[in-house]
Design goal:
196 residues
Length: 196
């Protein structure tokens, strides 16, 4: 580990490996359990970090999904990750949780940030440059609610702590994914037994 107190010089070539041009970002609209659902259509851009987490659980994934986590613009592991979500009004992920902090900052449009599920659900609407920061253990989701611009995609920045952050969809979100997949494939939906 480099002693940060000792200043060092970097070449422009070294620093350019840490520059991400927005127009050149490679986004992904897949790689997450909810990606195929119509209400979840969005494109995720991994800008900084997002090393894929190690997990065999189908509900546990990288916050940007397997596809985007394999192509960050700046591939570093320095304790945080940064990305963007681009979506049309009414679109966003299902309810999920992270093993580290997650912060949202709308760049354009109006975004609704929800937390908790069922009767306990709460939300706040954010405008450009507003900020909300979710702690570990609180289920959350976001959705573009710029309904007065129905055909226009808007941009949300997210910052997630850790070197290999994990996202896990809630049981209700995974059930929605399973039901949609079964309907799409023509397989009858199975009723889940509740735990006592």
């Amino acid at each position: 580990m480099h002693d940060w107190r000792k200043t060092r010089n970097w070449t422009k070539a070294e620093m350019m490996k840490r520059v991400a041009r927005f127009k050149k970002l490679k986004g992904s609209d897949g790689g997450l359990p909810d990606s195929p659902l119509p209400e979840c259509k969005r494109k995720l851009y991994a800008v900084i970090g997002f090393q894929p987490p190690m997990s065999d659980n189908a509900a546990t994934t990288s916050p940007v999904g397997a596809n985007a986590s394999e192509m960050p613009a700046i591939s570093i592991a320095e304790g945080f990750n940064l990305g963007y979500c681009r979506a049309r009004p009414g679109k966003g992920p299902l309810m999920h949780n992270h093993d580290t902090n997650e912060t949202f900052i709308p760049m354009t449009g109006r975004w609704r940030c929800e937390w908790n599920e069922g009767d306990a659900m709460q939300y706040v609407d954010l405008n450009p440059y507003d900020v909300i920061s979710f702690p570990v253990g609180v289920a959350r989701r976001f959705m573009n609610v710029t309904y007065d611009e129905p055909g226009r995609e808007h941009l949300l920045m997210f910052i997630i702590g850790g070197d290999q952050p994990q996202a896990e969809f809630t049981p209700a979100a995974m059930q929605r994914c399973e039901e949609w997949q079964q309907r799409k494939s023509g397989t009858p939906t199975k009723k889940r037994r509740r735990r006592s």
